[in-house]
Each structure stands twice: as C-alpha cells, then as structure tokens.
Give the backbone structure.
Amino acid sequence: MQIVSDPRISSFLIKVTARCNLNCDYCYVFNHADQSWKSLPSAMSTDTQEAVATRIAEYVQEKKLDFVLVIFHGGEPLLLNSIRLVNFKRLIKDKVPQSTKVDFSIQTNGVLLKEDDLDLFQKEGITISLSLDGPKEANDLHRLTPKGNSSFDKVLEAYHLLQKYPKIFTGVIAVIDPVVSPRTLLEFFNELNPPALDLLLPDANYVKTPPKRNENPNLYTKWLIDAFDIWVENYSHIKIRFFDNLILSSYGYKPRTDSFGFGDISLLSIESDGSYHDLDVLKITQEGQSNLNKNVFNSSIAEVVQCEKINAHRKLLDIEGLCQKCQVCPVVSVCGGGSVPHRFDGTQFKNPTIYCNEMLSLITHVQHKVVLPGSTSLLKPATTVMKDQSPKIQIDIIKFSEAKKFNPDFDIIYKEWCEHNIREFKKAFEFIKADSFCSKETINFFERLEETQLKQISLYPSTHVWAKVINTRSKGLQFKDLDGNIISADGSYLEFIKDHMDTFKSPNINPNDLWLTKSFGSKVVLEDPSTLKKTQHIVQAALKIIREYKLEIYNEILLISPVIVLIKNHDGKENNFISFSDNMVPGALFVSILSKGKEASPYTIAESILHEHRHQKLYMLENSLKLVSSNLPYVSSPWKEDPRPVSALFHAVYVFHELYYYWAYVNKSATDTEEKDRAKTEVISTYEKLMNGIETLCNNQNLLPISKGLIDSYQKTLNLQRVSA
Ligand code: SF4
Ligand code: SF4
C-alpha cells in the first residue's frame, strides 16, 4: 500500500541573494524563462532571515524532524559575505530544537572565496560545494563574468583553498557541454581529485531544447555513454552521483536525484524576499512556475507544502503521473520519466524528459554491457530482477495460498525463504567480521549460534534490512533511505541483537528497534509512546479476532510476519487508517491506529494486519518463483485510479481474496451493528472489485501458468461461493 501523507521537507534551499558576480549563459536563475529575479531584493534582509529561521524551527518542531539540511544558495551566496551567512546560520540553529540535527551548506561559484571565510565556515561546520565545469576551455564556454571575462583562475584558486579544508569541502558541480570530450573532463577532475562530482545535463525542455542537439541528435547520447565507459574503466574512484544512481537504480534501488523522476518532494526553496518556491530549476519552464504564492510572513511551511502546485508536482514523481510512453517504457523503473523541469512542453509536464533518448540509451547500455566496478557479475536489468522459476521448485500454488495446519507446499517456499535469509545474514556477518567492526566477544557469540537461533535472527525483519545494507556496502555501493540520506551500518547492530535476542519473539508489537524504520527515513513516523500504551489492547483484540477467524492464518502471521509497528497517520482524512508493508523489511507490518485522533476498531486493525500479512506471504513466494513474465503494459485496477504493473494487480487480488472472506466472517460474527453494517458494505464492494481484477488478470498474457492457476481457482470458487451479505 502507498503511504499517503504530506511531503516531508528535509532540505531548505535558501536564496540569500538574487544577484551574481558571474553571468553563466545556462543559469536557470538569470538566463531562462522566469525573470522574477529582477524584482527580488538583491540580498535577504535580516527581517526576512528572522522569519525564515522561525518558519523552519516551527516546521521542524511540528513534524518532529531529527535532521534537516539548509543550503545557502543564490545567485551567489557569498555576495552576502561570510559573517552575515554565519549569523544567519546561528539564528536558525538557535531557533531549531536541539534534538534536531541541522546541517548547513553553501553552493558557491568560488570567485569571492577567501581563506578567512573558510576558517569561519569550518569553525561553524558549514560545508561547501563548488561550481566548476572542468578545465579552462570548458569553464570559459559558459561561466563568464558579466563583462565576458574568464572566471577560471579565481575558481581554481578557490578549489585549491578548499582542498585545505577537507572536512567541509563536499564536492564539485559541473554542467556538461558535449563539445568538451568526456576523457578531457574526467582527466581534469582526476587530477583535482574532488570529494564528489555532480555532472548535470544542461537545463532544457521542449521549448528550449538541449544546446547543439538539433544539429547532432546523438551528441549527448554518445557523450554520456563514452563518459560512463571511461569512468568505469579508469576513474570509478571518482564519486559521480549521476552514475552511482544509475547503477543503484539498475539494481532495483530507488534513485535519489533530480535527474531521475521517482520519489517525493523533500526540498523547499525560499527566495530573498521570503517567498516560498518549489524546485528552483522549474524556473526554466515559465514565469512564476516555481512560485508557491505564499511567503514566510503569511504562511507556515506545513501549510504551503499542501498547496495545489506541490500536489501537482508530487503526482509527476509517481508512475501513475507519467505520460503513457513512460508508463510502458522498459526502463521506467530506473529513469522515472526524468527530471520534471525537463518534461515541460510550453503548457504542461506530462511528457518524457527532453533527454528521453539519452536516458533510454544510457540506461540500456549500463544494464547490458557494463561490469560493475569491483564486481565480477554483469549488471542485471531492473526490469528482470525477479528470479527465474527454478525447475527444482514445484508447488501447488492453490495449496500454498491456503492457511492450514499441514501445508507441504507452504513449507517448501518457507524453507527456501529461511535459507535465503540465513545466506544473506551470514554474508553480511562475514563482511563485518573481516573488517573487524565488532568485538571478539560478539563474533564468538554469533559463530557459536545454534541453527535454530541463526534462523530466528536471520528471519527477523530488521536483521534483513541490516544485512541488505551491509551487503550493498560490501559491493562498494551505498544504500539510501527514502529521504536520500545514506544509511550507514556497522557491527553495532550485532551487539544489539546479542543483547536483545530474547525480545525477538512473535508477535512483537512496537519493538524498540531503529532498523525497522531506517530505510523509510522521515517518511514513516512511529506512534507516540503514550498512544502505544493506550492502544495496546486494540492490537491484542485484533489478534484475537484473527485467531478466531482462522487459527491457521494467525499461526502463519506468527511465523512470517512477526512484527507489528504502529505508525502515525498523516493522511488527515477521517476514518482512514493507513497501513503498509515493504519488501525491504519483510515480516514487519506497519499499521496506523489513530485517524484524526480517533482510535481504530479492533476489526479495522485486524483487517490491516491480514492485508499486510498477505502481501508478505506473496513476497516470500516471489523470492522463489516468478509469477508474471512482464509487468508491462500496465493494467487497470479496480482499487486504483491509474494503471498498475501486472504483479501489483496480482498482489491486490491475492490480498483482497482473503479480506473478502474476512469481512464475510465479521458480517456474521460481529455483535456491534456499526461493524456489521460496515462488513456488509465491504463484502459487496470487495466482491465486485475482486471479480473485475480477476477478469483483467485472466485476459493478461503476462501471467505465468502458475499464477494463472491460482486466479482461475479464485474465479471458480468466488462464482460458486458468493457470500450473501
Ligand atoms: S554562478 Fe551560479 S548563480 Fe551565478 S550565474 Fe553562474 S550558475 Fe547562475
Ligand atoms: S527513457 Fe524516456 S520513455 Fe523511458 S521513462 Fe525515461 S523519459 Fe520516459
């Protein structure tokens, strides 16, 4: 299920100036469609700074954020001067609660940067990112002063100064000009050895197309592929976020960059007059596109992020908001339709990125031809991540799906699942051991574990996340949470397991274990301790309902879905209790128990638990067997407004098939009239949607015979056993 909530803003891009000492011809602030900079104050006044700091502090407090990033941006932020920047930083820091970590960063062209500034920034822990397009001949193509002079020498001087401050120097941003060969560019940056390099395509869309591409349609494609190959072969030690993200997403991980489309809005811009803006690069589209028409003096951040423009932007970051071409594109899971400003056609954004051909070619190239640095295996395309059906595994899926006491078909899949998890845990343990990240005592403890204890630990939801992060790290890659922050992992979690093994029980409600929610970043917020205490009895009552409904399904939950985590509901709608589970944390069921302050009934919580458990059971099966040959083209789903991947509809039918019988049971057994009435409505609507979903799947060529068998059997039994409601 989707998590429906307001966007969680974790980065604030503060335009402390609206002027610059350079005039780069591609600059989205000064030289694109939106010319609003002309009417903005050249620098942010102290009154506006005060109001900005107050709004950030208010938002952080309201949303209980542990971490936010504040980026001082412009124009050129150093036009404000370093002392005023530091004062602004202190103002924000003083207002934000101490429990929230605030990182500060400056994006500068470097021309004004002096050693004194860097001493000050280092003392204050403000990090610096520098804009530099490459060697002199590259930089002088675009990054000139207003009088047309080169900025290169001063910027290079700034670069060498920054090298003396490695603690605060985070990296370089360079805009690509395909006239400069990728080898020249990478050789230059290899010499400089920056901590990280961000390569950006020049901002363009269907109104203002990529420079020089009309004359040479393959210009950027060839450049990107050549650059990637040269980087892999010679310079993969340079951290290039664009390529790193491409590799990660080709492995099925979520990319976290504006160059790729999926995700959620996590950044808010604030201009020098205090006006709130969406992603600042939207200024390349049309006058006023990024302006949210509210400011720090009249609106809170929480209020402004609920506005129509932000909602419309969020939709474009989801598969359902993409144009038809992108929705059926074989690399959509990696590309996501591309950067939103690059999709604009003069009136709207429902288009592939103007760099569609480049993205398609580059992603396909990476997926099929390139060996991962440090790895011996070929990259697997994200669209074929599912496993092939092993001829060794032969089960009756209809029997597997039933919850019953003796179920050899279930046992086969469960055994495979256990072996898979044990293997992954052992791999992570060996990596940690080899790197001696934990104490000898802990290593001895894990080496002496009995097989049953090893199984218990490996199958635990949070252990699965930890092992996945460690095993990703062992490949030299990084794992990021939904906010885009890198998840760090070491042996300390093993110490935690050693000390808490007795709490790894089932059912385990709200265990105190940070690894259960780490991968979601700030997107998932745990319920308050007081609510947990107050509502424990509802969860217990829900489990009792499930036991009475079907003891076997209750036992199955104990076995493969041992953890229930109560989360806050950000939906804001009345009587809408969200729940979700995610294959990243298998076995953990995330359930909300309050909606607008009102408690859920035990029947609702029982439904949420059953719903998410069914997803878990199917994820477990998908670990061993392929169920659909392809997810494309998408199909219509009676539970969603927009088309869905074939496997998502299969999941929905699988889940709601059980819920149909559950609601029929509630309709018969509940004594409360309100619950009875609700159950009756659910039975009728679930039946209709189920039959609709089943029919769609029956006609779908991509369903493999094993899945088809299950859907056919559902159709037959539902036809025969329509429950009277
Ligand atoms: S230095 Fe940055 S803000 Fe200034 S003109 Fe160049 S791109 Fe724009
Ligand atoms: S490659 Fe093109 S069609 Fe495919 S998702 Fe990206 S923009 Fe859309």
Notes: The radius of gyration is 27 Å. The pocket of iron/sulfur cluster (ligand 2) is lined by residues 325-326, 329, 331-332, 335, 337-338, 352-353, 356, 359-360 (CB under 6 Å).
